[in-house]
Design brief:
Elements (H helix, E strand, L loop, with lengths): L5 H11 L4 E5 L2 E4 H17 L7 E5 L3 H13 L3 E5 L5 H11 L3 E4 L2 E4 L13 E5 L9 E5 H14 L6 E3 L6 H12 L4 E3 L5 H8 L7 E2 L3 H10 L11 E3 L6 H9 L4 E7 L4 E5 L2 H4 L8 E2 L4 E5 L7 E6 L6 E2 L11 E9 L5 E6 L4 E3 L2 E3 L1 H8 L5 E11 L3 E10 L8 H9 L11 E3 L13 H9 L2 E6 L5 E7 L4 E6 L10 H8 L4 E6 L17 H15 L4 E6 L1 H12 L4 E7 L9 H35 L1 H5 L3 H9 L1 H8 L16 E6 L6 H11 L4 E5 L6 H4 L1 H12 L3
Parallel strand pairs: 1-10, 3-4, 3-5, 4-7, 9-10, 9-11, 12-13, 24-25, 28-29, 28-30, 30-31, 31-32, 32-33
Antiparallel strand pairs: 1-2, 5-6, 7-8, 8-18, 13-14, 14-15, 16-17, 17-19, 19-20, 21-22, 23-24, 26-27, 27-29
């Protein structure tokens, strides 16, 4: 390349190859001459708006053809330009504007000047400002001088095979996407744009003309491509730089076996993208390495420990100038990445972890990425995230969130722990493996560990579809090594048990799954009907299967206790212990109470038929708790109960109970009753204790039937006493 800048290079190409394609996007073709005209138009508009050298301009990063013109035109006008994703939420965009404090913004096709002055956001000259991903804290604006972007493009062009067409499958609001544009202009080749979130679209784009030779991907994109097609990529493909987050060695090996010429990399925004690259041939022998430094880049390890691991330092001509709004970074200083790594005897880099993500368990250091890589080698695990959870004994312990591969079931905590233990020391094995539908990532594919930590500290909602189309929902609280199930009563929901679940999980040894039954909460039926207990048990077992759980303790409240007992009788191998809070097990009552239950079922069903859910809820609660209890309810509580009236219809008939089967229960059973509760619960519990081998009845002083909702901490303490055999 000549000394000309990238935008000037477009001008040269417009003169020498004016009618040749520069950007191809969904049937649209922009020639070099047309791109030069768009750059000139933007430069003139930005200059006319009174932009001074280094003032900050914000442009949307989509659509790509227009965005390239806005970005390069703003640079030509002498501005610093920050491309932002138009997919941001309004709140995210407002926060970005507040942080960047621009002078000018492209909004809805028009240039809009900022209301407030932006002197503190001026930089020394034309530059790109990219927002960091925020994986370890608040996002910052990384200032990359135009010379840094060009140095990075030159290094990459020297390191990779010659390109004839790049595929842009990552956003222009990231250095990876911007780098593709810079490299294509430097190499005088077109760039084809595709929505990288759809593997089918990427695969189709690889087969178009002109033939694509290079595409940058993040690991999740590559994994989806491999899942979508068993066919080899087109023969035209020469290089697939892979970066933007932790790269599982198993993914590299799998891609190479399928014919993908992957080039694993290590980089960061502060170095204008890549720092190291592992050539495809070397990836076959060292798939866990990030490769050697790019031309002109020097990588060293600061203060290496006994394993030669220390902080990765980078010296590169593509270094950033500093963070927006902070003092400029002294020229020539190395970049302290905050990442931990080591170099082997031939100079290949192995990235161990981010320093801020390292877990210290009883003085022993644990690398989350090391554990994640092992977990992701399990055939049933598509993705994993490991973070530290506070522990009163060890300080921190590792906990894992896992995404199960399509077509697989959760292998269970014991199997996953054994899998990790085969490769790593025991102290590195996570204490729990919580199943999630997806892991939080940035739009560039990086794992948001802060969000994973927060996610594991609050209830996580989940749902699965049953064969008849009903969806069964639940809420998961805590990250302890032992999972217990919590079943709510009639006219309540799993969400109402959040405080009880939090109290149960608070010591750190439990993960609590609160499951909504059919007719309630997130498991409501389209057409409510009385539901047989066998169906409830089947739904419960489906949730246990989803998590790979066996011999699980179940705490059931009111009708939830009925379901827990029936599950223990019908599937003794799946239930390890039952604690039932005042279960209204009708067949275990005396004749008078059984008649009362039958009348309750009939009146609830009739109320639902004539008045819907609200009438069913009122009829049920007046019968169970008395007219006074209903009359003193505030309007908000009545509205909630009315919405859950389908649950009253589902439960009231006590359909399908098998009292003779209770003698088959082998799990320990404790029947909790409250001294201030309705009078029929205690006799039912005494009768159940006589039917169930080894069952015990425990009465709790000063509590009532609703105490799990009104006094969750006290009830949690009582439940934990029984779980621990006290």
């Amino acid at each position: 390349m000549t000394a000309a800048s990238i935008d000037a290079r477009v001008g040269l190409l417009a003169a020498s190859a004016s009618d040749q394609p520069a950007i191809l996007d969904q049937g649209r073709v922009t020639t070099w001459a047309e791109l030069e005209a768009a750059i000139d138009e933007t430069a003139e508009a930005v200059g006319s708006a009174g932009i001074n050298q280094g003032d900050l301009v914000i442009v949307p990063a989509e659509p790509a053809i227009e965005a390239v013109g806005w970005i390069l035109g703003s640079l030509r006008a002498g501005a610093a330009v920050a491309p932002l994703s138009p997919r941001q939420t309004t709140t995210e965009h407002e926060r970005a504007i507040e942080m960047l404090n621009p002078t000018l913004e492209m909004r809805d096709g028009d240039w809009v000047r900022a209301v407030r002055p932006a002197d503190d956001r001026r930089v020394s000259g034309p530059a790109i400002v990219v927002m960091t991903s925020g994986t370890t804290g608040q996002p910052k604006g990384v200032v990359l001088p135009r010379t840094a972007m060009e140095a990075s493009a030159r290094a990459w062009t020297s390191a990779l095979p010659p390109a004839t067409c790049w595929l842009l499958a990552v956003g222009l609001n990231h250095v990876a996407g911007l780098g593709v544009v810079w490299r294509s202009i430097l190499g005088e080749v077109p760039v084809r744009v595709v929505d990288g979130s759809h593997p089918e679209a990427v695969l189709a784009a690889l087969e178009t003309n002109p033939p694509v030779t290079h595409v940058s991907l993040v690991p999740t994109q590559l994994a989806r491509l491999l899942d979508s097609s068993l066919a080899a990529p087109p023969s035209s493909l020469r290089a697939v730089p892979l970066g933007g987050g932790s790269i599982p060695p198993g993914l590299v090996t799998r891609a190479l076996a399928a014919g993908w010429p992957v080039v694993p990399t290590y980089g960061l925004s502060e170095a204008a993208s890549g720092v190291t690259a592992l050539q495809t041939d070397e990836a076959r022998v060292a798939p866990d390495s990030a490769g050697r430094p790019l031309p002109g880049v020097r990588v060293t390890i600061d203060e290496p420990d006994t394993d030669a691991t220390g902080e990765i330092l980078v010296d590169t001509p593509a270094a950033f100038a500093g963070y927006l709004g902070e003092p400029p970074r002294p020229p020539g200083t190395v970049i302290r990445t905050g990442d931990l790594g080591r170099l082997d005897s031939v100079g290949r880099l192995y990235v161990v972890d981010r320093r801020t993500d390292r877990i210290v368990r009883g003085g022993e250091n644990i690398s989350p990425t090391e554990v994640e890589a092992i977990l992701e080698q399990h055939p049933a695990i598509a993705a994993a995230a490991v973070v530290g959870a506070a522990d009163p004994v060890w300080g921190q312990v590792p906990v894992a969130a896992v995404v199960v591969s399509p077509g697989h079931s959760h292998p269970g905590a014991a199997a996953l722990a054994a899998h990790v233990r085969e490769s790593l020391a025991g102290f590195k094995v996570p204490i729990s493996f919580l199943r999630v539908d997806a892991l939080p990532r940035t739009s560039g594919g990086k794992l948001r560990r802060g969000e994973v930590r927060a996610m594991l500290q609050r209830p996580i909602a989940g749902a699965l579809a049953r064969p008849d189309g009903t969806h069964i929902g639940w809420r998961s609280t805590g990250v302890g090594p032992t999972t217990m199930v919590l079943l709510h009563g009639t006219l309540s929901t799993a969400a109402q048990l959040d405080r009880l679940a939090a109290s149960l999980a608070q010591p750190g040894d439990l993960t609590v799954l609160a499951v909504d039954r059919r007719g309630s909460g997130t498991s409501r039926m389209r057409a409510p009907v009385p539901v047989g207990v066998a169906i409830h048990v089947g739904d419960l077992l489906a949730v246990l299967d989803h998590y790979g759980l066996d011999s699980v303790p179940i705490v059931g409240l009111s009708y939830g206790g009925v379901v827990a007992l029936e599950a223990a009788a019908r599937c003794p191998e799946r239930v390890g212990r039952v604690i039932a809070w005042e279960p209204p097990y009708g067949p275990a009552a005396d004749a008078s109470t059984r008649g009362w239950f039958a009348s309750l079922a009939a009146s609830t069903e009739e109320a639902h038929r004539t008045g819907g859910r609200a009438a069913a809820a009122e009829t049920f609660l007046r019968a169970v708790a008395g007219d006074a209890a209903w009359d003193r309810l505030p309007g908000r509580a009545r509205a909630f109960l009315a919405a859950e009236g389908g649950g009253a219809l589902a439960d009231a008939a006590l359909v399908g109970l098998e009292p003779d089967g209770l003698s088959r229960i082998t799990a320990p059973v404790v029947l909790l009753t409250a001294s201030a509760s309705e009078p029929f619960y205690a006799p039912i519990a005494r009768n159940l204790a006589q039917r169930i081998p080894g069952a015990r009845q425990v009465e709790l002083e000063g509590m009532g039937h609703a105490s799990p909702l009104t006094e969750p901490a006290r009830v949690a303490a009582a439940i934990r006493d029984q779980l621990e055999g006290r």
